[in-house]
Write a structure and sequence with these properties.
- By secondary structure, the protein is of the alpha+beta class.
- The chain has one domain.
- It contains 7 helices and 3 strands; from the N terminus they run βααααββααα.
- It has a 3-stranded antiparallel sheet with strand order 1-3-2.
C-alpha cells in the first residue's frame, strides 16, 4: 500500500481565483496546475532526498527487531544492507481537478517507505537522517496556500 499525502485547494479558494477570470476558469486551473501544485510536488520530492551513510551504532526499536534482522539475513536483503535506489524510484505525483477542488498527490509506492520516511519510521532511520515526509509536507502545504494567495494577487493586480 503506498504512503501518500494529498493536498487540496478547495472550491472557495478556486472561486476566489476564478473571480479574476470569470469567463476563463480553465485558465485559473491551468495556472494552479502549472505553478503552485508542481512547485508543491517538486519541493516535496526535494524533501525526500537520501541522507548520508548509516549512523552507528544502530538504534533498534527492540531486541526482537535486532534478532529478526540477523536471523533473516537483513530481512532477506543481505548484511550489510546496500541501498538499491528503490525508495527514490518509487515516488509518484499527480495533480487533478475534482468536483469541488484541485488536488496534488505525492507518495511513495515502496512497501517499506512507512518504516523509513513515514509514521512508522524506525529509530535507526531517524538517526541516519531520513526526513519524516508526512511531517515535512505540512510546511509545504502551508507554502502552497501562500503561493495560491500570491497567484490570486498577481491575477488581480494587487
Amino acid at each position: 500500500m503506498p504512503s501518500e499525502i494529498r493536498v487540496q485547494v478547495n472550491d472557495a479558494a478556486l472561486r476566489q481565483l476564478e473571480e479574476a477570470y470569470a469567463q476563463a476558469p480553465a485558465m485559473v486551473l491551468n495556472a494552479l496546475k502549472q505553478t503552485v501544485l508542481p512547485n508543491f510536488v517538486s519541493k516535496a520530492l526535494e524533501a525526500s532526498a537520501y541522507p548520508g551513510p548509516v549512523v552507528y551504532p544502530i538504534e533498534w526499536a527492540s531486541e526482537r527487531q535486532r534478532a529478526a534482522f540477523f536471523a533473516t539475513n537483513g530481512f532477506g536483503h543481505g548484511i550489510p544492507y546496500r541501498r538499491t535506489g528503490t525508495l527514490k524510484s518509487s515516488w509518484f505525483s499527480d495533480t487533478k481537478r475534482l468536483d469541488d477542488a484541485v488536488e496534488a498527490v505525492v507518495g511513495n509506492k515502496a512497501d517499506y517507505a512507512r518504516f523509513v520516511i513515514w509514521d512508522s519510521q524506525q529509530p535507526f532511520h531517524r538517526n541516519t537522517g531520513w526526513t519524516r515526509f508526512d511531517l515535512t509536507v505540512d510546511a509545504l502545504a502551508e507554502q502552497a496556500a501562500r503561493d495560491i494567495e500570491a497567484l490570486y494577487e498577481q491575477i488581480m493586480g494587487v
